[in-house]
Amino acid sequence: MSSRSRQNTIDKTSRSNINHNPTYTPMPRKTSKKYDLVNHGKDLIFPSHKPIPDRPNDAVRQGHQKQPIKKLVIKGLKDKPKLPANYEEETWSKLRTAVQAIFNCQRIGTSLEELYKACENLCLHKMASSLYNRLAGEIEEHLKEEKTKLVSNLNENDTFLIVVNKCWMAHCEQMGLIRSIFLYLDRTYVLQTSGVISIWDKGLEIFKKQIMSSSAGDIKKKTINGLITFIRRERNGDSVDRSLLHSLIHMFIDLGTYCPSFENPFLSETRSYYHHEGLRLINEYPVPRYLKHVKKRLKEESERISQYLDWKTKNPLTKVVDDELIKRHVDALLDKGFNDMMEDQNSDEHIQELGRLYDLLARVNALDRLRLYFGSYIKKTGSGIVNNIDQESTMVEDLLALKKKMDSIVAISFDRNYNFAHTVKESFEVFINQRQNKPAELIGKIKDIPLLVTIYWQALTCFNMLFNYLLAKYVDLKLKLGNKRMDDSEIEKTLDEVLVLFRYIQGKDIFEAFYKRDLAKRLLLNKSASFDYEKSMLSKLRKECGPAFTSKLEGMFKDIDLSRDFMTSFYHSRISENLRTNIKIDLYVNVLTQGFWPTYTPAPLILPPVMADCQEVFKEFYLSKHGGRNLKWQNSLGHCLLAAEFQKELVVSLFQAVVLLQFNDLKQKEKISYEHIKEQTGIEKKELDRTLQSLACGKVRVLKKFPKGRDVNTTDEFIVDENFDVKLIRIKVNAIQMKETLEENQETNERVFLDRQYQVDAALVRIMKMRKSLSHNELISELLSQLKFKAQVSDIKKRVESLIEREYLERDTEDSSILRYLA
Amino acid sequence: MKVKVKGWHGVAVWRWDVPNEEVCGICRVPFDGCCPTCKTPGDDCSLIWGECTHVFHMHCLLRWLQTEGSRGQCPMDRRTWVTAK
C-alpha cells in the first residue's frame, strides 16, 4: 500500500509540473511551420545573398532560375470531414468494457495503447466533458456494488477490517490503472477546466461518498470502531497487524477525513483508557514502578505515531497521556512516593527514579510542586538531624552527608536545574537557623541523660548557638592533634565542606567566638595537628567573611610566633642559664596580647617557691625587654611535665602539678585533708574539686580518696596510690572538662551578646546621625537590614531606650513614636 | 611518691602598665584598645610615656606634636614633651 500511495504522490507532482505550461504539446509543430516560411521569405527578399554551398537545395535554386515557376495551390475541402455518428458511443463502449474489466479484475481485451489513443481522440473531438462524466458514473456504479458486498460483511468482526482494507487496496490499484489510460483526459480537460478534480481525486471522492460516509451505512463506523479496538488490544499487550492499521488509517488520511472521523474518537478513547489505567495503577503500584510504567506508555505511544498514526496526532496524543497518567496524579505521586524515593539508600537506583520523576513532572509543568516537596523534605530531614540530641556528635557529619546527597540529586536527577539548587540552599538556611524556642520541651526530652548535659543544653537554649558550637567543635576535632589519619587533600576537603554549612548560618559572630576559643586551646596546649591546616582554615574564613572577621584570629597566630621568638632569645640569655642549672625547670611561656584572645578569668594559685622563682625570673626578663607592660599569669592554661619515680613522666595541668607537689614531703601512707590542700595551694573550690577528681577518680588514678566515691567533698582525705602502675612511660592525666565547658559556653554566649549590643548601638547611632529623625518602625527595619545577625525587636527597643538615657537620641515631644538624633 | 617539675608551659597575658579603664587623653579610647587609625591593639599600636608621667597612644601623640599649635608640649600640662627613658 505504501508503494501505492507513493506512486500516487509522484503522479500528482508530475501533473502539477505540466500545469505550468498547459499548451506545451501542440507548440512544436506550429513553430516549425512558421520557421520554414520565414526562412523561405528571407531568401526571396535577399536574392543576392551569398548561397551557402553545402545546402542540399542549392541545385533546386539554381534550376529555378532557368525553369518556369511551378505554383502550389492549396484548396479548402469541399465538405467538412465528419465523424461517424456513433463514434463517441463506440469509442466509449470500448473504454467502458476495459474499465469494467479492470474493476472485475479481468483481462483487458484491447491494448492499452489503443485505449489511450481512444481517450485522446475523444478529448480532441471535444467530448472530454461527457467522457469524464461517464467515467465518473462508471466508478460510482462499481463502488456501489462494492458497498453492498461490504454491507453483507458487516457482521464479521475480526475479518471485517481485512475486507475493508482489501476493498480500499483494490480501489487504489484499479484507479491507478484507469488513470493511466485516461491520462490525456487528466492532463488536458481536467487541468483546463476549473471546478473539475483529477480522476484519482474523483475516485477518492466517490469512494468516500459511497463507502466511507456516515450516510452510507455502518461501514465507516464499524471500521473506526474496529481500528480503535485493535489499538486497545495492542495497548493491552496483544500483538496486532500493524500494517493493516497503517493502511486503513492512511485511507482516512487520503480521504481527508482523518481528523474528524478517526482522530477525535481515537483521542477520546485513549483518554478514557488511560484515565482508568491511571486510577487503577496509582493505587496498585508503588510510585517508582508507576513512573516506569508511564515512561513505557509514552514510548509506546510515540512508537504508535511513527508506525501507523499521522504525525499530527503526536501532540494531542502525548498531551492526553500526560494529562491522564501524570497531571491528574501529581499530588498523589509526590505524597505517596517522594519521601520514600528520597530515603532510598540504593543511590544509583533512587537517583534514576528521581530523574524519571523529574522528567515526567517537567512534561506537565509541575516542577514547582516537586520543588516544594523537595524543599520540605530537606527541611524535615535537616531538622530531624539537628533536633536529634542523641546524635549530637555526628550531627555535622550527617548534615554534610545530607548536603552531598542533595547536591548529587540536583546534579544528576534534576538536570542541574538552577531553581532546585536554590531550593537546597534555602532549605538548609531555614533549618540551620531555626530557633529552638522551647528549651523546656527540649530538656524534657533528655531526662535520662546525665544532669550535666541537661544544664549544658540549657545554656545553649537557642539552636543557632548550638549549631555554631557544634560546627566549631567539628572543625576543632578535625584540626586537633592525633587526627592524623587524614592526608592534606582530605583535610582541605573537609574544611571546604564545613564552609558550605558555615555559609548557611546566620550569626557568624557566635561561630567566631567558639572557634576562637577552640583555636586558643589548640594553640596554647599544643594540640593543633598542623599549623598549615590552621592557616588554611583561617584563609578560607577570611575569604568568606573578609579580613575584619579574622583579624583577631590572625593576631593569635602572631602572638604564638612572637612568643616563640621571644623564648629563643630568653634561652640565649644569661638569666635562663642560671635557671636551668639551679632550678632545672624547662620553662616555655606563651605571652598573649589581651585583645586577641578569649578572656580568661584569673584563677588564684599559690605556687611552690621553686616555680614562683622561675616565674619571677621570666617576668623580669620580659619586662626588661618590653617597657610599660604588665604581665598576668593565666594559671588555668598552664601545663607541666612531672618526673615521677621509676622514670615515669606525668603530663598534667598546672593545678594538678601543684596539688601533686603537696604530697612530696609526706611520709609513707600519710593522708592529707581537702582543707589542707586548699590552704596550701590557694586554688578555688570549684577548680580544686575538679583537679582532685581528675587525680583520684579519673582514668589514671594517681591519688586515692577516702572515703571512696565519684564526687569530691570537703571532708575527704587523700593519699598517694603506692600501687599506681601504668605501663606507659609518659602518662597523661586528663583534666575533667565538662563543667568547664558549660561555664565557658555561658561566658562565650555572654560575650557574644555583649559584642552584639555594641554593634546594635553603633548601627543605631550611625543611622540616626544620617537621617536625623525617624519613626521607630522605620528605624528598626533599617537597622535589621544593616545587622549581620538576627536581632530580637525587644532587644533593640532596650538599646534605643539606653541610647535615649545616654542622650544620643530623644523622643519627639509631640509624637512619641518619632526619634531625633541629638548632635 | 615524689614528683619534680621538669617542664612548664606557662601562659601569660600582657597589658599596658596603666591603671585599669584609663583612656588616652587625646582620642578618649581606652589604652587597651587602639588609636583611631589602627585596627588591632597590642604591639602595632603602642603607648608612649612622657617624663611628665602622662601616657598616650604613640600615634595620637606623634600626630599632636606634628601640629603647629602643639609647640612640642604635652597636651595635658603644657610642659615640653620629653619621652621617658
From TrEMBL, chain A:
Any one annotated GO CC term: nucleus
InterPro entries, per database record: Cullin, Cullin-like_AB, Cullin_CS, Cullin_homology, Cullin_homology_sf, Cullin_N, Cullin_neddylation_domain, Cullin_repeat-like_dom_sf
Pathway: Protein modification; protein ubiquitination
Protein's UniProt keywords contain Zinc: no
Xref: SMART domains: CULLIN (SM00182), Cullin_Nedd8 (SM00884)
Composition bias type Polar residues, residue spans: 1-24
Any one GO MF annotation of this record: ubiquitin protein ligase binding
Domain Cullin family profile, first and last residues per copy: 470-696
Annotated keywords: DNA damage, DNA repair, Isopeptide bond, Phosphoprotein, Ubl conjugation, Ubl conjugation pathway
Matching Pfam families: Cullin, Cullin_AB, Cullin_Nedd8
Listed GO biological process terms: DNA repair; ribosome biogenesis; ubiquitin-dependent protein catabolic process
Region: Disordered, residue numbers: 1-32, 46-67
Gene3D superfamilies reported for this sequence: Cullin Repeats, Cullin, Chain C, Domain 2, Winged helix-like DNA-binding domain superfamily/Winged helix DNA-binding domain
Record SUPFAM superfamilies: Cullin homology domain, Cullin repeat-like, Winged helix' DNA-binding domain
Family: Belongs to the cullin family.
Xref: PANTHER family: CULLIN (PTHR11932)
Protein name (database record): Cullin-4
Upper classification of the organism: Eukaryota, Fungi, Fungi incertae sedis, Mucoromycota, Glomeromycotina
TrEMBL record, chain B:
Pathway: Protein modification; protein ubiquitination
GO molecular function: cullin family protein binding; ubiquitin protein ligase activity; zinc ion binding
Entry superkingdom: Eukaryota
Record keyword Oxidoreductase present: no
GO CC, one annotated term: anaphase-promoting complex
Entry keyword set: Cell cycle, Cell division, Metal-binding, Mitosis, Nucleus, Ubl conjugation pathway, Zinc, Zinc-finger
Metal-binding recorded as keyword: yes
Subcellular location: Nucleus
GO biological process, any: cell division
Domain RING-type: 35-78
Pfam family, one: zf-ANAPC11
Location (main, coarse): nucleus
InterPro entries reported for this sequence: RING-box_E3_Ubiquitin_Ligase (IPR051031), RING-H2_APC11 (IPR024991), Znf_RING (IPR001841), Znf_RING/FYVE/PHD (IPR013083)
Family the UniProt entry places it in: Belongs to the RING-box family.
Protein name (Swiss-Prot/TrEMBL): Anaphase-promoting complex subunit 11
Taxonomic source organism: Funneliformis mosseae
Source organism phylogeny: Eukaryota, Fungi, Fungi incertae sedis, Mucoromycota, Glomeromycotina
